[in-house]
Amino acid sequence: MTTSHSLRRAIRPLLAATLLAGLLAGCASGPADGAAPTGAASAPASSAPASASPTATETPEQSFRTWLAASREPDVELACSYLSEELVAKMLAELAAGGVSLGGCAELIATTAQLYAALGATADAEVETIEEAAGRAELFVTYGSGDCGTVALVPEGGRWILTEHSQEVC
Length: 170
Description:
The chain has 170 residues and is α+β, with helices and mostly antiparallel strands. The protein has helices spanning 2-18, 60-72, 76-81, 85-97, 105-119, and strands at residues 125-133, 136-143, 148-156, 159-162, 167-168.
């Protein structure tokens, strides 16, 4: 359908930012050999805030899934609490470069949740842990739509938050 296709094309930059800085393209799974995607392991870890706890009670995957569900409901306060300030700034800058100016994380989450709902998108995702250490974790995520990429996280207050080192892989 042309209208649905046009709508999807028009909002793709917005969806890309919400999917952690462009987790776009049509991948179906992580690397076949189990190795981290090129460049994934070499990305520098974010500095964890002073309140960071190296012993998170949530796993990185649980934190990611909590963020994903909250971003679709939307529960803007919860969703934003799982994003580093640097990631929010990166996402807003990418949107602004594409001509979409939003006022902050809450508006970003609320707007994209409306778009996901309009497109019938779900919070379905396959998640593979690439790396997990006391101060850093990296996941490979493939969304139900086929978009995929790495999600970098650092511990904070008993859980993990998503950082600006998340990137498009395929």
